[in-house]
TrEMBL record, chain A:
Main location class: membrane
Key word Membrane present: yes
Protein name: NADH-quinone oxidoreductase subunit H
Gene Ontology terms: biological process: aerobic respiration
PANTHER family: NADH DEHYDROGENASE SUBUNIT 1 (PTHR11432), NADH-UBIQUINONE OXIDOREDUCTASE CHAIN 1 (PTHR11432:SF3)
The species this protein was found in: Acetobacter tropicalis
Subunit architecture: NDH-1 is composed of 14 different subunits. Subunits NuoA, H, J, K, L, M, N constitute the membrane sector of the complex.
Cellular compartment(s): Cell membrane; Membrane
Record-stated family: Belongs to the complex I subunit 1 family.
GN (gene name): nuoH
GO cellular component terms listed in the entry, alphabetical order: plasma membrane
EC number(s) on file: 7.1.1.-
NCBIfam families per record: PRK06076.1-1 (NF004740), PRK06076.1-2 (NF004741)
Automatic annotation (TrEMBL), chain B:
Gene designation per UniProt: nuoI
Name used for this protein in its record: NADH-quinone oxidoreductase subunit I
Primary location group: membrane
UniProt KW Cytoplasm keyword: no
Region (Disordered): 150-170
Species per Swiss-Prot/TrEMBL record: Acetobacter tropicalis
Intracellular or extracellular location(s): Cell inner membrane; Cell membrane
Taxon lineage: Bacteria, Pseudomonadati, Pseudomonadota, Alphaproteobacteria, Acetobacterales
Gene Ontology terms: biological process: aerobic respiration
The keyword Translocase is annotated on this UniProt entry: yes
UniProtKB/TrEMBL annotation, chain C:
Broad enzyme group: translocase
Ranges that cross the membrane: 6-21, 28-50, 56-76, 97-114, 134-158
Species this chain originates from: Acetobacter tropicalis
Keywords of this entry: Cell membrane, Membrane, NAD, Quinone, Translocase, Transmembrane, Transmembrane helix
Name of the featured protein: NADH-quinone oxidoreductase subunit J
Subcellular locations according to the entry: Cell membrane
């Protein structure tokens, strides 16, 4: 057992990075499928090596730091983004036994904290680029991600109240009889929306917003630094999906098949749903996004917390 | 809200629909015969060049990609050189419409990529084909009132013999 | 354990020194974030993981981002030596420095006289924090919530005022 965490520390980030790279291809294929196209299908079987080809291309691109940029912060920003996402995976329990810190007693809060730090990647990238589009993207990202962090935290409280623990392992085992998506469907809905906004994925990718901001916060980035933002975003999707799986879909629980298979199946289902959202929905305006957050999601998540608390109190009393 | 769910569902249903993309190199797309692709110069049914170097195509070309020079041989007009710069050509087909002799024609072929731009400048030898193209029976010199070896004045189709100026007969 | 605590403690100190010596505002804020993270590590090592994570989420993850946000809005990109010199005259910082020196001396003295606590402590869980918050400290929690409500109402009022003037 002592050497297992050490192995996991090296193995899990490697697997996550490989999966995130693969996800770029999966997303393009699925978008093609839903838009009556094929998507990349030339390199390797079914286009499987497209991700590898893109990786090689991006590695050999010129890695240019604009002369007007703040160099230290400019280099720091993508690494912050990558590190926070990868660190978050430490607390995710993939199976009852694995996971680097699956039984961390504040696992959920740790992930929230890492997501909170992940905002710096985007904001600092926007600031350090010293260009107006990047700055606008960074400012949008700061406001959007901080706002949606609030709703994300509040929507999670329902789950924490029922399970009575911040420990993700305990939260999964509390779902043995009933997945939390049933009693916490409102919280699930809010968490999903907040998760999309938090990873600035389409349809909530206003920090990038190609139509109006060029590429938003990473306008000035090129080469592997851009690649790190790109891969961190996809790793973020996997992170949010595995969180949804852990918190609302019963984690590794499931009949017949091994635990890890169930976890991967559920997580990939959520990932596919994320991609479907991208394929189907247009991007809202920025004020619409903020209004949705503060005027609809905040009251709803507070209502969810209150209702869950009331039910739990009544059940404890009766 | 319901609209959003409906949109998601309808988009998901597209997974089961046929794909519109043609898998190009393996699967050739259907091109109609009037498709405006690579430009050729055709010959008349006798095997002679149709082009009479009238320059109308070069005038009609909106991007000035055609250049040619007239020369003359036994009464027939030919282009001394005929050059189309395909790196400029926009395949609008105006040259084909301007051509009075059906010489310049656009064909349903678009596979003409090159690695170097100069290779896209096509000379007369590259453009000229050994056929009549879209108009198999048309021969300009056989309908025009100009004399060439083997065909005198007045011998063209639906052409009256020339008026003899020296006779007094009606 | 002791080494780790010393390391994170010295990181906190180093970060704090860097915060007040940087000339670019964003760099100072970044060092402040590092300080807060090191402080969170100290908390975690002292057996209060809940407080540590709250430090990361609230201070490092939310409040400092707002600092960066404001700096970005005001576009304080370049160092401004003249203005810094104008603001930092000895007459201005002399008084606070003297008071903090006294406080620091007092702290060092009290730390040296404190009885050494050697027995290990159990980690403080979220449940313990909640119980003490809504048990002995419930009045404080209510007062703070009043303060926050007042802040919320003020912010709303200011925002609405601006909207009507437009």
């Amino acid at each position: 057992m002592s050497h297992l965490p050490l192995l996991a520390i090296f193995l899990i980030p490697a697997i996550i990075l490989a999966l995130a790279t693969l996800l770029t291809w999966v997303e393009r294929r699925l978008l093609g499928l839903w838009q009556d196209r094929h998507g990349p299908n030339r390199v390797g079987p079914g286009g499987l090596f497209q991700a590898v080809a893109d990786g090689i291309k991006i590695l050999f691109k010129q890695d240019w730091i604009p002369p007007f940029a703040d160099k230290t912060v400019f280099v720091l920003a993508p690494s912050i983004g990558m590190m926070t996402v990868l660190l978050s995976f430490a607390a995710i329990p993939f199976t009852p036994l694995s996971g680097i810190a699956g039984t961390l007693n504040i696992g959920l809060l740790f992930i929230l904290g890492m997501m909170g730090l992940g905002v710096y990647a985007v904001v600092l990238a926007g600031w350090a680029s010293n260009s107006k589009y990047a700055l606008l993207g960074g400012m949008r990202a700061a406001a959007q991600m901080i706002s949606y962090e609030v709703f994300m935290g509040l929507s999670l409280l329902g789950v924490v109240m029922i399970a009575g623990s911040f420990n993700l392992h305990d939260i999964v085992t509390a779902q043995t009889h009933c997945w939390f998506i049933l009693p916490q469907c409102l919280g699930f809905f809010i968490f999903l929306l907040a998760g999309i906004a938090e990873t600035h994925r389409l349809p909530f990718d206003l920090p990038e917003g190609e139509n109006e901001l060029g590429a938003g916060f990473h306008t000035e980035y090129s080469g592997m630094k851009f690649g790190m933002f790109f891969i961190a975003e996809y790793a973020g999707i996997i992170l949010i999906s595995s969180l949804v799986t852990t918190l609302y879909l019963g984690g590794w629980l499931g009949p017949v098949l091994p635990a890890v298979v169930w976890f991967v199946l559920k997580t990939s289902g959520v990932v596919i749903f994320f991609i479907l959202l991208r394929a189907a929905l247009p991007r809202p305006r920025y004020d619409q996004l903020m209004a949705l957050g503060w005027k609809i999601l905040l009251p709803l998540s507070l209502l969810n917390v209150t209702a869950t608390g009331t039910v739990l109190m009544l059940r404890a009393a009766g | 809200m319901l609209n959003t769910v409906r949109t998601l569902f309808l988009t998901f249903l597209h997974a089961f629909q046929a794909r519109a993309t043609v898998q190009y190199p393996e699967e050739q797309p259907y091109l109609p015969s009037r498709y405006r692709g690579r430009i050729i110069l055709s010959r008349d049914p006798d095997g002679m060049e149709r082009c009479v170097a009238c320059n109308l195509c070069a005038v009609a070309c909106p991007v000035d990609c055609i250049s040619l020079q007239k020369t003359e041989e036994n009464g027939r007009w030919y282009p001394e050189f005929f050059r189309i710069n395909f790196s400029r050509c926009i395949f609008c087909g105006f040259c084909e419409e301007a051509c009075p002799t059906y010489a310049i024609q656009l064909t349903p072929d678009f596979e003409m990529s090159e690695y170097a731009r100069p290779n896209l400048v096509y000379e007369k030898e590259d453009l000229l084909i050994n056929g009549t193209g879209k108009y198999p029976d048309y021969s300009f010199y056989h309908v025009a009132g100009i004399s060439i070896p083997g065909k005198d004045r007045g011998k063209a189709e639906r052409e009256r013999p020339p008026v003899d100026l020296h006779t007094l007969l009606p | 354990m002791n080494t780790l605590a010393l390391l994170s403690g010295s990181l906190t100190l180093l970060g704090a020194i860097m915060v007040i010596t940087r000339r670019v505002a964003v760099h100072a804020v970044l060092y402040l974030v590092v300080t807060l993270l090191a402080l969170a590590t100290v908390f975690a090592l002292l057996g209060a993981p809940f407080a540590a994570v709250l430090e990361v989420i609230i201070y490092a993850g939310a409040i400092m981002v707002l600092f960066v946000f404001v700096i970005m809005m005001l576009n304080l990109g370049q160092p401004d030596r003249e203005r810094e010199k104008e603001w930092l005259r000895p007459r201005i910082w002399g008084g606070p420095a003297l008071l903090s020196t006294i406080l620091c001396a007092e702290l060092i003295y009290s730390l040296s006289t404190l009885p050494q606590q050697t027995d290990s402590f159990s980690p403080l869980s979220a449940r313990d924090v909640g119980l003490s918050l809504f048990g002995p400290y419930v009045l404080m929690v209510e007062l703070v919530s009043f303060l926050l409500l007042a802040g919320l109402v003020t912010a709303f009022h200011i925002g609405r005022h601006r909207m009507e003037n437009r």
